[in-house]
Amino acid sequence: MTKQPGVETRERLIEAAARTLRAEGYAGTSARTIAKAAEVNSALVFYHFGGVDPLLLAALDRSSEQRMAAYQEAVAEARTLEELVEVATQIYRADLEGGHITLFAELVGASIARPELREEIVKRAEPWISFIERTLERVIGGSPLAKLLPPRDLAYASITFYLGVNLFTHLDADRSRTESLFALAERVAPRAKLLTVRLPRRRP
Question: CA geometry: angle at 58 spanning 50 and 40, to 5°?
Fold first, then answer.
């Protein structure tokens, strides 16, 4: 089925916005540079999205939607903390190679000076926090580790860690330092196995 011209233009703009943001950064991304990459008139950025920021958020939404679908399937197979750490490492590497880290980091950086953008980023982080919380609850819920580190709090910590690692990746040219953090998590996870054993319920 052939897409309508308006739908096709929106798709081209979203794809071009993602490419431009990854290549030029937020400071170098404008209606003109996005339109040039999409090979359309820059006025169409405002016609379809109302501005550059809404278009960039649409590009982030598209990337997040695709990643959420893929990662829900990936973590569904994880049954232990070790397996979860392994999947998390794979997710980090996939996000890095796919450019999602750059999309997210650039918009977070831009939101420091733009409160309206900050609110939108926070809103988009919430589904990921909930996703991580549900996953942790499934894997470690009811265990001593969950009592020590509640899944909701650990989900917030995971997002904070993810963002910090993503930003530091830009300074870590060979990725050796960031990779060492995941290697550390892989070494610690087996040692925390006893803390993930679910406690038997007390009889009344």
Answer: 60
